[in-house]
């Protein structure tokens, strides 16, 4: 099929080429030239103030604003400063001389109050009183020590060993003695001649058990309070 050609093609080409030749030089071909009468004058760009009102017949115009009712004019009164100062001196309290301290024979002196010789600090209300931050710190230290002691006691209570009651102690003693009698009976029933290795080992085991039982029975009978670790 034939290629599509717009019917406005020639019109667009004409519009594109119409003003193209005017911009080949620096700017448009024809520019409006300013008239020589419109030249820049001196101080023409500075801001201008409003014109002042002319006085009529040499009299100034009164201001339009009316003073308010609360307005009080300032009345200037002449003061006699000489008499005022004289009265202030006559009625004033005489100044006390400043105390000085002289410590050399040449007469060198300096003020007595800032020298440290006047005991003014011991006359304060808070003299000898412990500061608040010290008491607070002591209370905090004491509270921390009490908390630490309480935690240690609690841990000791948790790790504390159990004590045997009298009934349990007597029952354990009876059981140990009964066990000792049974092992002793078995030991007494051994043959006199131990010629084999098995007999020797069996005899040594019985002797060790008897010694251990005797040691346990003596320890329980010696101590009334018996503690058992968990």
Automatic annotation (TrEMBL):
Positions of the Enkurin domain: 136-228
Localization per Swiss-Prot or TrEMBL: Cell projection, Cilium; Cytoplasm, Cytoskeleton
Lineage top rank: taxon: Eukaryota
Gene assigned in the entry: Enkur
Coiled-coil spans in chain: none
Protein name, per record: ENKUR protein
A GO molecular function held by the record: calmodulin binding
InterPro entries, per the entry: Enkurin_dom, Enkurin_domain-protein
Gene Ontology terms: cellular component: acrosomal vesicle; axonemal microtubule
Biased composition regions of type Basic and acidic residues, renumbered to the chain: 40-59
Keywords of the record: Cell projection, Cytoplasm, Cytoskeleton
Record region (Disordered): 33-59
Pfam families, A to Z: Enkurin (PF13864)
